Amino acid sequence: MKPRKIGRIKGIQANWKHPTETRFGVGKINELPEVCQKVGMQNPLLVADQVVSHLPFVKKILELNRIAGIGTQMFAEILPEPDLRCIKKGVQIFKDGQFDGIISVGGGSTLDAGKAIVLDAAVGQKALGNYKFGSTISTKTPQKIHTIIAIPTTAGTGSEVDAMQSL
After folding, report:
1. Strand 73-75 with 101-106, pairing
2. Predicted confidence (pLDDT) per residue in 11-27, tens digit
3. What contacts 88, CB < 8 A, 6 or more positions away?
4. Alpha-carbon 110 to chain mean position
């Protein structure tokens, strides 16, 4: 039996909402400025690690947002296993830059770090441990928790579709 040649997948795309909106497929990154505008982000902080920050599609993200008038800056110091010092530095940059949301690009560690940065910015690092599985944070936060757009580069933890993070 002669093996069949398998072609390249080019056209799979989808949008899904349950309750987190998920978009995936070839070329979906081009929709990022539209998504930023939809959620009210005009000045997001892009969070990545050193490796991902140098990939061509990250440069494309920055360029797409620039063309759309969305001022995006990058914090590319997320560690493979982010600790509280890493989060604290991200929070300081987030607050100093007066950013209005985060675009996390990378694997589970980076996506978790983005979530921890916006939560810490809202409640403070000492209160981070108070937020456990099943708690309702919307009634306990002294200020708004900013929006996160997660762009996963791996398939694994599913960190892009839940509110949990591990540090």
Report:
1. unpaired
2. 666 665 556 778 778 88
3. 120, 125
4. 7
What is d(CA 140, CA 151) in angstroms, rounded to the nearest whole number?
28
Q: pTM to 2 decimals? A: 0.79
| pLDDT tens-place string over residues 59-115 | 999 999 999 999 999 999 999 888 889 999 999 999 999 999 999 999 889 998 999
Could you read off the pLDDT of 131-153 as tens digits, one per residue?
554 555 554 555 678 999 999 88
Q: Which CATH number describes the domain made up of 17-156?
A: 3.40.50.1970
DSSP structure string for 95-127: HHTT-SEEEEEESHHHHHHHHHHHHHHHH-GGG
Q: What CA–CA distance (Å, rounded) separates 43 from 146?
A: 11
Give the span between the Cα atoms of 152 and 28, in whole angstroms: 12
Can you tell me which residue has the tokens 């939560």?
119
Decide: 12 and 26 in contact? Cβ < 8 Å: yes
Question: Is the peptide bond between 19 and the residue preceding it cis, with omega within 30 degrees of 0?
Answer: yes
- Please say whether the beta carbons of 52 and 59 come within 8 A: no
Which DSSP helix (H) or strand (E) runs through 63? helix 56-67
Q: 113: how many CB neighbours lie within 10 A of its CB?
A: 28
